[in-house]
Amino acid sequence: MKKTLLAAALLAGFATAGVAQAETSVTLYGILDTGYGYNQVKFNDHGYDLKSTNSGMQGGIFNGSRFGLRGSEDLGNGTRAIFTLEQGITLGDGTSTSTKQFHRQAWVGLASDDWGTFTMGRQYNMGAVMIYDQFNVGHTMGDMDSAFGAVGYANRMDNSFRYMTPNFSGFQAGVAYANGKTSITRDGNDVDSTDNTDRTNWVSVGLKYANGPIALGASYDRQMMNDTYTAPDGSKKDWHNRNDAITSWNIGASYDFEVVKLALAFGQDRHGKMGFAGAGMANTGADVYKALGSSGNAYSDFKSNNYYVGLSAPLAGGTAGVTWTHSKSNLDEYDQWTLADGTKGAFPDKAQDIYQVNYQYPLSKRTSVYAYGSYGTGMYYLDNAKAKEVGIGLNHKF
């Protein structure tokens, strides 16, 4: 009798474990993308003769290489616990693309088909979800985020809370908020607020519609910065005026004509640029953009209008893409910059234009080969700054 009861208990335990396993899933996924590429950026003006050339193995061209874990647990009543942990990698040397363990995504939350999805952690803003994911056709330099701020996968929000509504007949909305955590006070007052009190915060909202051949999207981001930099005179300066948060709003639309799909987008950046575009401005011609003229911190009053046109079409069993991004800033108002040697000089403003053609051919459902070529003028809004790139590669998803 005891043996029978023990056997029944074991069978019940195995059955329960089987049900639990069926209700919980963890998936390993990833993308491996690399190939050969050549790119060059040149800037020659006012005594500056800068030239950067890179050739050889290039990684993350059509997609950033990564691996990740995606999990879901059924909690009953249509509610699920979900999480994602995603790490970027460089195939050329096998290293991580960041010092953070899961820098691409790291979040956990709850999801329901009835009330939507709420997640917490490091995750993408609405510009990436509502604009970039729907309309971008280009890659690397031809990406939308080479000109548009607050779109693209560079815009990840640390310490963020995000809510996405369910999909209502193609409509979906979202909102996210992130804030800094450090605050040092003494007797109720901030202690050295410039260096020690983290006043950063980021609000991101968006809306999209996708149904049949039509897609529409809109996003708005507002980010208060707390960064400082060293001016030519050695003093510390706010990179952005505390009262002038960086803002970026973008709208986009696309229509699939079957023979060709057309995507259009327009956006405005104010008081700086987020994402890859902002990083490019800071890292190229740094002596120009970090210098202070008589008008003060140029970034505080920065403005740009951004335009995007993307075409994609089936061709010879694959997909061809053509893109053009155009961005015009107000940097021509700052015609007297303090150069690195302390002298005054004008850096004429020029609108940034980037053109790209690319082609992707599938070898299977998960593996494809690709080729691309790009050319840009007025890079980072600098006259006489030009860039070009070409390459071929292999993309595998698992």
Notes on the structure:
By secondary structure, the chain is mainly beta. It is built from five helices and 24 strands. The chain has helices at 2-23, 126-135, 193-196, 275-283, 286-289, and strands at 24-45, 48-59, 66-76, 79-90, 95-96, 105-112, 116-124, 156-164, 171-179, 185-186, 189-190, 201-211, 214-224, 228-230, 236-238, 246-256, 261-270, 303-315, 318-329, 337-338, 344-345, 352-362, 367-377, 385-397. Strands 1-3-4-6-7-8-9-12-13-16-17-18-19-22-23-24 form a 16-stranded antiparallel barrel. A hairpin with a 4-residue loop joins strand 22 (352-362) and strand 23 (367-377). It is globular. The termini are far apart. 32% of the residues are buried.
Mean pLDDT rating: 83
Query: Would you identify the regions where 5 or more consecutive residues have pLDDT less than 50?
Result: 1-22, 284-298
Beta-strand residue fraction: over 45%
- Please write the string of helix (H) and strand (E) elements: HEEEEEEEHEEEEHEEEEEEHHEEEEEEE
Measured as a percent range, the helix fraction is: 10-25%
The number of helical runs is 5
Q: What Rg is obtained from the alpha carbons, in whole angstroms?
A: 24 Å
> Order of strands side by side in the largest beta sheet?
1-3-4-6-7-8-9-12-13-16-17-18-19-22-23-24
Report how far the terminal alpha carbons are from each other. 51 Å
Inertia-based shape = globular
Structural class: mainly beta
Number of strands: 24
Main sheet makeup: 16 strands, antiparallel, barrel
Oligomer: single chain
Describe the structure concisely for a colleague.
The chain is mainly beta and 398 residues long. Helix content is 12%, strand content 53%.
